[in-house]
Design goal:
The structure is a single chain. This protein is mainly alpha-helical. It is globular and about 35 Å long.
């Protein structure tokens, strides 16, 4: 269902929490994702924000593909509370975020 690894999303969460120092690295990391990963990342963030329910993930994903007008890194990094949205989105989709964080560390 989700075509971006949870570890990549958790890496983005960590980098976003590091604040302005890691912004250039975060931007480059997101830019380096493929089109599918970028769409899934956006959909996960929307689920975390409550724009879509977890059950509506396929619709969120279709919307992420069709509505992409701004570079994904710019769009997501402009989103208030990105790290919290991604964490909430992963959890809503059944991913053990704590386990993924521990694996990454």
């Amino acid at each position: 269902m989700i075509e971006i690894s949870a570890s990549k999303v958790v890496q983005i969460i960590f980098q976003h929490r590091e604040g302005p120092i890691a912004r250039a690295e975060l931007h480059a990391f997101i830019d380096g994702l493929n089109v599918d990963e970028k769409a899934h990342l956006t959909a996960i963030a929307w689920v975390g924000r409550g724009v879509f329910d977890a059950a509506d993930y396929p619709e969120a994903l279709r919307t992420a593909y069709t509505e992409a007008r701004t570079p994904t890194a710019d769009y997501l990094m402009g989103m208030p509370h990105l790290s919290e949205n991604l964490e909430s989105g992963l959890e809503a989709l059944g991913v053990d975020v704590t386990g993924e964080e521990e694996d990454l560390l």
